[in-house]
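Check out a protein:
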Amino acid sequence: MAVPSELPDCGLDLRKVKLVITCLYFVLFVPALLLNITAARISWNLRTKSSFVVYLKSLVASDLLMTLTIPLKAGSELPGAPQWLRAFACQYSSVVFYLCMYMSMIQMGLISLDRFFKIVKPGGKRFGHSALFGRVVVVVIWVLYLSVNTIPTMVLTNEKPENNTAELCMAMKNDLGKAYHRAVIIQCNVIFLVVLVIIGVCYTCIAKKVIESYRNSGSTNVEGNRKIKVRVFIVLVVFLVCFAPYHIIRFPYVQRQVENKINCHWASLKVAKSLTLWLSSTNVCMDPFIYILLCKAFREKLYELRIFRRCFPTRTLENTEDTSVSK
């Protein structure tokens, strides 16, 4: 069922909304590409000595791949975009976009757990901190997500719609595809909630442990305590600001989407979903700053770049070092 650009009595011009969101994606793409190419270059040169670095490199790969899907996603949202481009986005590029987004979340959770066991529950050289263990975990998670979520979604989004409908992606799914889509949304919300709890608990415990160490040693390093709290605060805030609004909106939107209820409520949810999805995608610009906060080796490699060296003197870099929280 086609839908006009402006729904009756809704006060929403969906064409204008799509145009604004498309512009936001293109504005995001340039800094995201520069930041993630830089992050990929730096991470490529990091020695893979621990599971932490493996997770970091996997996170960088997820963010870079997600960044590369942004132009296709933005182009498919343009008013008047050809149906073949919208269909390609529904079946392939948007599915990869979501794959990378949730893999980024999972990698953030793994990094949080790694830091937790390294700092709060230290036990010498454990197998769980080895690069081999990290590689196995990363490969298993990528394979599982691809086989359970991404590939079935692509396969089940293969119907040919009769016309350029408002919900083309749903029109490309049969009844099994729609049911599977609902299951995927539940799975994704569970991933978000689990990772949120992991990040919150792990970094809160890390901050508490390190601050207690300062106090037990008689240290009055107020600046060090402040930096630890800021690091915990930033990781949690970035995760919540980027991902929480989208996951609040997504489930009720999908209910309307699957049921094909094209009305004012659907239009409002669609606008909210589109805006919060763009907000989620800004995570590709936020993650590189988290790398700097959490990875000492990453900071050192970044400092070797001439541009960074001009912006930050040596003393500034040294003042950011806090090996109790970062690796």
Observations:
- Residues 14-319 form a domain with the Rhopdopsin 7-helix transmembrane proteins fold (CATH 1.20.1070.10).
